[in-house]
Amino acid sequence: MIKGIFFDIDGTLIDSRGNFLTSSYQALQSLKSKGIKVFLSTGRHMLEINQVDFKVVKFDGYITLNGQICLSADYKSLMRVPIQNADAETIVKIFNQKIIPIMLVQENRMYINFVNEEVKKAQKTV
Q1: 39 near 60, Cβ under 8 Å?
Q2: Backbone phi, psi, residue 65, to 5°
Q3: How is residue 51 annotated by DSSP?
Q4: pLDDT tens digit string along 1-36?
Q5: Closest CA to 38 of 16, 85, 6
Q6: Are 73 and 42 in contact, with CB atoms under 8 Å apart?
C-alpha cells in the first residue's frame, strides 16, 4: 500500500512559466482523497516555494534545499542539516570577497553577496 508520494516542483507540478498545472492539482487531490500523503521534495527554499500558487492543495510536508531543511505540513522543522562551522566560516570569507555570486540561505532568509547577469538569468529560470 502506498502511504506517501514525493513530488518535485519544476517540470513536475508547474510548467516552464511557473504555473501550477491543472493536471497536477487533479492528481494531488485524487491521491489525497485515497488517503495518500503528498510531499514536496525540491532544491527550492520555502520562500521560493511560497511564490508558487498551489491553490488549495495542502502538502503533508516539505523537503527543501535538497534535504537540508525538512518541514511538516504546518512548517515546523523536522530536520536540519546545517553546514559545518569550519566550512561556514570559509564560505562567509568567500562571500565577503565578492569574487563570485554566492547565495547563503537560512530557514527564513536568503542572502546574496551581489547580483550579476548570470544570477539574473538563473533566478529567471526559477
Answers
A1: yes
A2: 50, 45
A3: T
A4: 899 999 998 888 988 888 888 899 999 999 999 999
A5: 6
A6: no
* 49 Cβ contact partners less than 8 Å away, ≥ 6 residues apart: 9, 40, 42, 62, 64
pTM of the model as a whole: 0.79
Amino acid 63 reads I
For 51, residues 6+ apart whose C-beta sits below 8 A from its C-beta are 18
Q: Where are the beta strands (DSSP E) in the chain?
A: 4-7, 37-41, 61-64, 69-72, 77-80, 103-105, 110-112
pLDDT at 53: 81
Q: Is the Cβ–Cβ distance between 59 and 13 less than 8 Å?
A: no
Q: Which residues contact 2 (CB under 8 A, 6 or more apart)?
A: 36
Q: For residue 50, what pLDDT is reported?
A: 85
pLDDT of amino acid 54: 80
For residue 108, the 8-state DSSP code is S
